[in-house]
Specification:
The protein is of the alpha+beta class. 19% of the residues lie in helices and 31% in strands. Bound molecules: 1-hydroxynaphthalene-2-carboxylic acid.
C-alpha cells in the first residue's frame, strides 16, 4: 500500500522525463525482482520438421554466398531475435559436398555438434579436423575458422554461439580472412590429425604449453566415440545421479574448467526408464538428443525428444528428464558467464506440476 501520492509521483515522472531521469520508486519493483523474471520459454525444434527445409535452403543459396548456410533458431518469446536463451544462439548448418564456408573470425565463441554425415571438416586457427556424428568441436573467441565437405553426402551440424551475450556487452567484432588471388578466402592448414587432442587431451601437454591461453580449451575436436565410451564405462561402475543420470563435462585440460570462457558443455546418459528429479538454475541450457527417446518437463511444458531434436530450458525454469529408452543428451550452457560474478544459483525442486 503506497503511502505516497501516486498521481503526484507520476506528474513528477512526466516533469523530469525531458531531463532523462525517472523516480526510482515507480520502477524499482521491475528492476530488483525477488527471483529472475525470464522472458524465454522452454521450446523444442524438431529435426524431422526442420531437416527438409535445410534441403530447400541448399536449393536457394550456396554456402559460400551465404557465408554460413544456417537456419538459426529463435525462442518463440523473441521472434525477431536470433536467441534461444537469453545469452545463447543455436542453429542448424548444412554444407554440401565440395562446398566451402569461407574463413572469418568474430568475438563470439562457437561450438559445433555434428548431427548428420561424416567427412565434413572445419579448420580453426590452422588446425583441420574431419568431423563425425556426435563430435563436439570448439571455435573459440576471435579464432579464424572455415568449413568444407570432402565427403559425398550433405553434412549437418548444430552451431551454438554466445553472440546474444556479446551483443549485450556491446563488444562484437568480426573480420574476414584476406582474399587470395583467385578469389579464395581461406586460411592455410598447418596441422591436422587431431593435433590438439594429442597435444593436450591425453593427460599430457607439451611442457611449454603455459604459452597457450587458458581462456579456452586448446582441444579442437572432442570425439563422440571417446566421450560415449567414457559414459558407458561410468554407467557400469557408478550409480546414476538422480537429476542428471551419468553426466560428463567437456573440459579445458589446462584449467579443469569449461571449454570456452562463456559456454560449458556436457554429455549425459540416461538409462531406459530413468525418471530424473527436478531442479532449476540461473543458466540457460541448450540440449541435443543424440540417442534414444524421452521427454523433458520444463515448467508446464513437456518436450518430447528423439534423435537430433534441439530443445532449450531457460533460466530458473524447474525441469526434469525422463528416458523411454537408453538415451544420450548433449548440452551446452552459459553458466561460465555467471560464475565469476557470484550470480550462479542452482537448487532442487521438490514438487513439479504434471
Ligand atoms: C558462424 O560464424 C558460424 O562459423 C555459424 O560456422 C553460425 C551464426 C551467427 C553468426 C556467426 C560458423 C553463425 C556464425
Amino acid at each position: 500500500m503506497a503511502t505516497y501520492d501516486l498521481a503526484k509521483s507520476k506528474a513528477l515522472a512526466e516533469a523530469v522525463a525531458p531531463l532523462n531521469v525517472t523516480p526510482l520508486w515507480l520502477v524499482l519493483g521491475g528492476l530488483i525482482t525477488d527471483t529472475p523474471e525470464v522472458p524465454e520459454v522452454p521450446y523444442l525444434w524438431s529435426w524431422k520438421a526442420l531437416r527438409p527445409w535445410l534441403d530447400e535452403a541448399c536449393r536457394q543459396i550456396r554456402a559460400e554466398e551465404a557465408e554460413r548456410r544456417v537456419l538459426t533458431m529463435t525462442n518463440p518469446a523473441h521472434r525477431h531475435l536470433a536467441a534461444v536463451t537469453h545469452y545463447l544462439n543455436a542453429g542448424l548448418q548444412i554444407i554440401l559436398p565440395g562446398e566451402i564456408a569461407p574463413t572469418h573470425r568474430h568475438a563470439a565463441n562457437a561450438i559445433r555438434l555434428i548431427l548428420e554425415g561424416d567427412g565434413a571438416y572445419t579448420v580453426v586457427n590452422g588446425e583441420k579436423t574431419v568431423m563425425r556424428r556426435g563430435d563436439f568441436v570448439t571455435t573459440p573467441i576471435w579464432s579464424w575458422h572455415d568449413h568444407g565437405n570432402d565427403s559425398d553426402r550433405p553434412v549437418v551440424w548444430l552451431d551454438g554461439l554466445d553472440f546474444p551475450f556479446v551483443h549485450t556487452a556491446n563488444a562484437m567484432f568480426k573480420s574476414e580472412y584476406p582474399t587470395a588471388p583467385g578469389g579464395i578466402r581461406r586460411q592455410p592448414v598447418e596441422r591436422d590429425g587431431d593435433d590438439s587432442f594429442y597435444r593436450y587431451g591425453q593427460g599430457l601437454r607439451p611442457s611449454n604449453s603455459a604459452l597457450t591461453t587458458p581462456l579456452y580449451s586448446p582441444i579442437l575436436n572432442y570425439r563422440y566415440t571417446t566421450a560415449r565410451a567414457a559414459l558407458e564405462r561410468l554407467s557400469r561402475t557408478d550409480p546414476p545421479d538422480p537429476i542428471e543420470g551419468w553426466r560428463l563435462e567437456y573440459i579445458n585440460p589446462l584449467t579443469g574448467g569449461p571449454v570456452l570462457p562463456t559456454m560449458d558443455a556436457f554429455l549425459q546418459l540416461l538409462p531406459a526408464g530413468f525418471e530424473g528429479q527436478a531442479h532449476r538454475h540461473t543458466h540457460g541450457s541448450v540440449y541435443v538428443a543424440l540417442e534414444g527417446t524421452g521427454q523433458t518437463q520444463a515448467g508446464n511444458t513437456v518436450l518430447a525428444w528423439e534423435p537430433n531434436d534441439v530443445f532449450v530450458v531457460p533460466s530458473w525454469t524447474p525441469h526434469r528428464h525422463r528416458a523411454a529408452t537408453d538415451a544420450v543428451l548433449f548440452s551446452f550452457t552459459d553458466a561460465p558467464i555467471q560464475r565469476p560474478f557470484g550470480l550462479h544459483r542452482e537448487e532442487r525442486v521438490e514438487e513439479m506440476l504434471e
